[in-house]
């Protein structure tokens, strides 16, 4: 077959191995890096990786550099003594390049989170994936999401789920959404938005009882010493009764309530002075200890957490400031008049004064059945002081049976398709280790007399091949096992004060080559300049 | 009990007879400066801590006619109810902050006592999110200073060693100075029972741990940075103005000895490589460059190396002495990740020395550019200088490559990755790329002498960006432990000045006209 284009390979070699190409490609690389560092500074590491460092173009530039280095060396063959240093430098660079490629293709770079005494073998990697879990079948399917900095159309169909779009950086925009499931008329699923103000602070507070609401919306909230509790609207009636026992029995499914006094149910005390009340429900008798738990206990004294009939003891909320909200009514305990006050709050009306240091509250919005929802909207992330403060939501838009659904890294989507339950979550690709790690203790030393950490240390148990060994991982002292290396990377503390440890996990097959190349590069540099010097000395 | 102490102190204060001096200092004497105190995670002499506190609060160590130690002591006594006179003034530089505090134009100081009454306002201003970043920062700093002032004034900032249950603990003055101790001591020294009680904390500490911390007192009092700066300036003046190379060499030698002493003392005090914050890196690169200049000058028999070394050395020493807002001399404990003396001393030292070597090229390139513009440069001189620059570039670039690689190995060893596109890493690679491009261009005569000076001078801006810019401008990523404030303005001025020089000297026609091909 006749060649369509005659390529002068010698010329190509001379161009790529030539100096101009070298300088130009180095400058391209440099400019890209400069842009990358500024993007990172403003928009965060992940954004910079997705726009510069881990893009195809940047890889191409690096490949171009490698080609330039290789050709430049080839052009200067056969070996000349004066160029030995030069060959060593270029060979070193080529070896570093090959080592990096091996790391890129085969290496593992992830993190493992270890909660105290919970064995784990799951390493979180950097790729975004969409994970479908079918709990009934015990099946899990993951599909990779595009590694991009901006929203991307996907349009992939999987078992009736059409994955439409992926937004890698999103912010939630508040909307009232249609509920996915249908609920009976009486179901307490309402939501309210309040505006709370005191002389020191003001805040919008959204409280909801809707089971489908985004995970950041709850039925209670705290603000300093004050707690806000959102309850089914009908319960306000029972609060207003001011029954002597202060006990309310209510139904969480229907949202209605009664007091023991109304039904002449006696509130008795055990010998240990614990109050209890026995309530007949559908012909059965159930017992509540309202001062201990909202849930009833059975005859074996087992707590039934599934019960929809619950108790509530107002006495528990008389000491600390607690505000109960029922949509357009509110209630609090007045220490002056020693009783519970119930007041109306008019929608968009005048603020209601509260008994705590000049505080007041407004009702801004109230919805009976709509779902408070944060609709993900694509944004450019913002980083401040090393923390991403905007755009840390990764969201996937899906179309299922003609309706739009969202799953994010904060709130997975769970629904029933064709009678089958499925949980869809946006998460990171993970890798299962062939052995297991457990954190026995996390230790953080402080510099004497200060709160500055001086060291982070993890004491680990490693379970491998039926054997258990103890290890101690801290800064500059990693754990190596079966080709994996574990480094102390980070830590976190839960509300109970327990420390969890985060370890960086790494497998790097290119390590030896990178070290070898580096050594050659430095030695070559010294050699090269020494040779030149000697030559110049001979000239003089 | 506190009230008792107060009354006791007040009564005792009448016992003091040294009313000759205008201000009453009670038992606050300069002897106290040798007391060990625990602050910021380290043990240091009170003199050092008091000076740091006074500098933070007022911008200067000595307060009017009393030393920092006495001023600190007197302010601490306030917490015990002694009516010490105190006129500590905060320095306000931000225009909006001055406006907010109601200061008249041109008036930059305000008494801390006045600020105390407005503490809540200042906190609210510092927490506002709708203001300019610089204003917010200056209010935050002011709020922190007011907080520190309050802490000192309450007697809580001065920690003294005391034996409790057979172990040495550190307690604030307010807890340390109890009535019993003073009364017991009063039996022995009726005139001044306080000083011996305080000095006992030193005896207790010294007995248990020795007096190693005293090195810092001598270090702080010696004022070595100033001595070194004067010596270097004298050396430079002897060389440039009086053209006496031998005297210049003598002063340079003295200066380098002082600088080595300075660096060594810091190593002894901190127990680690002297390159852990901006102050130390600037100092180290300057000294390294001077040393390199002297060595190269000796072996190559070329005086210009000494000139380059001295010029850069003077620049760095001036920064150390005058740029207190940007470079703080305070020795603090390291963040955990850096606590590895081997890697710290190899990786950072190599990088900083390479910056020093590249700075030499930058000095000479700018000198040639300016001299050429003024018509004081022959073609032959330019060629010689180009060769000298080339030599320093070779040294600098090789060391930089080695330093980056050492950093990669360290990162691999302690974080589990050789390279992670962290801003500091990336910028050091950018510097390497710029200089590699220049070396390649020079190697094959693509960049001629006329342009060589310009690109070399310009390339140093990348060093400044990697060195200061990442911390002061980008300030993110794993290397942000070196972050400090006030550097952005400095860096901006540096870039501006360098660009102006480059633009003015851009036209190579001013210089020698004949073509020159360097020998390679």
Which blocks of ≥5 consecutive residues of chain B have pLDDT under 50?
14-22, 476-484, 511-520
Helix content of chain B: 55-70%
Question: How many individual helices of chain B?
Answer: 20
**How many strand units of chain B?**
6
Largest sheet of chain A: 6 strands, antiparallel
User: Rg of chain B to the nearest angstrom?
Assistant: 27 Å
Strand content of chain B: 5-15%
Main-sheet strand order of chain B equals: 1-2
- Average pLDDT for all residues of chain A: 86
N-to-C span of chain B:
83 Å
Structural class from helices and strands of chain A? alpha+beta
Biggest sheet statistics of chain B: 2 strands, antiparallel
Looking at the structure, what is the overall shape of chain B?
A: elongated
Largest interface: A-B, 58 and 55 residues
Helix/strand-derived category of chain B reads mainly alpha
Number of extended strands of chain A:
32
Number of domains of chain B: 2
Distance from first to last alpha carbon of chain A = 59 Å
| Mean pLDDT across every amino acid position of chain B | 82
Give the DSSP E fraction of chain A (strand runs of 2 or more residues).
35-45%
Low-confidence stretches of chain A: 535-540
